[in-house]
Design a protein that fits this description.
The chain has about 325 residues and is mainly beta. Helices cover about 10% and strands about 50% of the residues. Strands 1, 2, 4, 5, 6, 7, 8, 9, 10, 11, 12 and 13 form a twelve-stranded mixed sheet that branches.
């Protein structure tokens, strides 16, 4: 009976010693990433960019996230490649899901590698962030980010391959476009008018800027130094249309008048007459400057010189100062 009691007592002491030894060894043994067996389940690694299209100089942040059907995770080994022609690595920020850095981040042109782990093991409850990597877009291109063989380690010793559903990740880097500057519209100042003291544009003259051609002088002088009869005026400058369409120019004159627009003579009556309106048409392109010249003479009696225009979008009106330029 003593021998039976001693045998039972010794067996119990040995079992307790082995259990304590097993716990001690298990607790203080460093985390091993290279397991002996390969599991049948697969993990999914996602690369999530903050957007898909960037311009040169912009910052690109990608989030490497883990989603797995495994039990609990003790480590992860990640290898990511990228093209150096379009991207430059600025920062690698490891996540807190696996806080133990087993191998510092290794950077080389075109690749990023790191190994992380956790004690105790971490349960993946959905999608967990392993790292955020910041790149700078340095060249117009269509770079892709992809994983070379990467693994995760489970608590039961399985090494599982990663099935990546987002690798390679395609990005687009474009040249920033310079916005087209809106041209500053400078209001017109009118036409330059040269007044001669005779009907044939010779002799003494004065020059001034007339905001519009809208004169009904009657029997009065057009200027203090010009006689009330037998004088001539030449107006020159530019006209700028407000729309791309055909415009009609109307010239009402007493006496003779000739009108050129874009070097085309569209009104021509060089003779004495009572106030009479004549017209001509010309096609324009919006906001373009077209040269305009008007020659007019007054013989005797009343004097009138009035320039109007119209178009499908512009009602008939005195050609406004805003559309007339001396240069």
């Amino acid at each position: 009976m003593f021998r039976q009691f001693f045998s039972t007592y010794f067996t119990a002491i040995l079992s307790i010693t082995l259990l304590v030894t097993s716990v001690f060894v298990s607790y203080f043994t460093p985390l091993q990433l290279h397991a002996q067996t390969t599991g049948t389940e697969n993990s999914v690694l996602h690369i999530t960019p903050d957007k898909a299209t960037y311009t040169i100089g912009e910052t690109i942040t990608v989030d490497i996230r883990l989603n797995t059907k495994e039990y609990k995770i003790t480590g992860a080994e990640i290898h990511l490649t990228y093209p150096t022609t379009g991207l430059d690595v600025k920062n690698v920020e490891l996540g807190t899901f696996m806080p133990v850095v087993l191998q510092p981040t290794q950077l080389s042109p075109g690749s990023i590698s790191f190994i992380v782990g956790s004690t105790p093991e971490q349960a993946v409850t959905g999608s967990e962030s392993l790292a955020k990597i910041t790149f700078q877009a340095i060249q117009e291109s269509n770079p892709t980010l992809s994983f070379t063989p990467s693994t995760v380690i489970t608590a039961v010793g399985y090494t599982t391959n990663i099935l990546d559903t987002t690798s390679p990740l395609a990005l687009t880097i474009t040249n920033p476009t310079t916005p087209t500057a809106t041209p500053t519209v400078i209001p017109g100042n009118g036409l330059a008018g040269t007044y001669f003291n005779n009907k044939n544009f010779t002799g003494s003259a004065i020059t001034r800027t007339d905001s519009t051609i809208n004169f009904n002088w009657g029997t009065q002088k057009p200027h203090a130094s010009i006689a009330a009869d037998t004088y001539s005026v030449r107006w020159v400058g530019y006209v700028v249309p407000k729309a791309s369409e055909t415009y009609t120019f109307y010239m009402r004159a007493d006496d003779g008048v000739r009108v050129w627009v874009n070097n085309q003579r569209i009104v021509d009556y060089w003779g004495d007459q009572a106030a009479t309106e004549r017209s001509g048409k010309i096609a324009f392109t919006k906001d373009q400057k077209y040269p305009i010249k008007i020659e007019y003479y007054e013989n005797y009696g009343n004097a009138v010189a009035e320039l109007r225009w119209s178009s499908p979008s512009t009602k008939k009106q005195v050609l406004p100062q805003a559309q007339l330029y001396t240069q």
